[in-house]
Amino acid sequence: MHRRLRAGAIGIAASLLAVTGALCQRAPSAPDMNTFQDRSILDPFVPTSGRVLLPFRLTNGYILVDASVNGTPGVFMFDTGTPMTFFLNRALAPLDSGKPLSVGTAASGQQFQLFLHDKVKDIDVASRLHFADLDGIRSADFSFVQQGIAADFLGFMGYPLFKPYEFTIDYAARHIAVRRAPATADGNEPPPGASTKIATFAVTAVGPQPGSMTLQAGTIELPALFDSGSPGVLKLTDPHRAALLAAGVLVPSTKGAGGTRDRSAPTLYALQTVTYQGQPFTIDELTVESATADLLSIGYPFLKHYRSVWNATLGTVTLWDATVR
């Protein structure tokens, strides 16, 4: 799969907020995107104690969860950058025509028309979560994601679905573990199998998405966010890019998604000795893009080394030790 499409897939999710902002201007009668997505619709499935586990598989670092929409089987991509519970692929999922809303553009260049559906009869996730007659669901034609990532792509499963809970992404175990967020949780309770806490990042949620934090890269304060749907993208102003290269903080990477960099692909980079509250990290396998403002999107190449515990109530993402496989 072309790396440009890999980077573009994050652009789909990142552009949704801008698209929804356009809806408020072009279609004032359309419901706000948060009206449905912030409800705790997982309550019937998350036990009072313990966790519900959603198994997944990985394709080029993307989390794909078996699912079905109105009886059609396929997969959802779990993307914490998607500000909706579900954002369906109308090229595969059997849906009604829906109400046309606005137009978005993926970072890889593809445009998509956004549609609103009053009711989606049935959505099943991993044969463990069953939703009926969901309202306020959006869809678009994501056939280009089918071609680049998964032919049976049903759409995105986003952060708001799990936001009222605490969830752990465990790449080694290949599952997402969801539990009711403890009222007195302080981020110090390890998820099953973990023993060493690496770091806790303050990432207070901003509406339906995780928030950002500030990393120190050399002399530059770098806004950053965690995103399970990202292959790792670093946007830099030209002066900051030149400064980081000159300081040896930003260097060409020796790795790729499969462990060895594809020489025919665009050069990937690593940020070396980036710090958060004084704690050093190396963030590898980054696509670097020129931009008018800095932003680091930290995805699979970094998160795969840890069990990441996401808790919107606390406004934290905590990294615990994991065995990478």
Task: Give a brief outline of the structure.
This protein has 325 residues and is mainly β.
Q: Would you spell out the secondary-structure blueprint of this structure?
A:
Blueprint: H1 3-14, H2 16-26, H3 34-37, E1 52-55, E2 57-59, E3 62-69, E4 72-79, E5 86-89, E6 99-105, E7 111-117, E8 120-125, E9 129-134, E10 137-140, H4 143-148, E11 153-158, E12 166-170, E13 175-179, E14 197-202, E15 213-217, E16 220-226, E17 233-236, H5 238-247, E18 250-252, E19 269-276, E20 279-290, E21 295-298, H6 300-303, E22 306-311, E23 316-321
Parallel strand pairs: 4-11, 5-10, 16-21, 17-20
Antiparallel strand pairs: 1-13, 2-3, 3-4, 3-8, 5-11, 6-7, 7-10, 8-9, 12-13, 12-22, 14-23, 15-16, 17-21, 18-19, 19-20, 22-23
Structure description:
- The chain is mostly beta strands and 325 residues long.
- It has two domains: 3-177, Beta Barrel (Cathepsin D, subunit A, domain 1); 193-321, Acid Proteases (Cathepsin D, subunit A, domain 1).
- It has six helices and 23 strands.
- The strands form three sheets. Strands 2, 3, 4, 5, 6, 7, 8, 9, 10 and 11 form a ten-stranded mixed sheet that branches. Strands 15-16-21-17-20-19-18 form a seven-stranded mixed sheet. Strands 1-13-12-22-23-14 form a six-stranded antiparallel sheet, with no helix packed on it.
- It starts with a helix and ends with a strand.
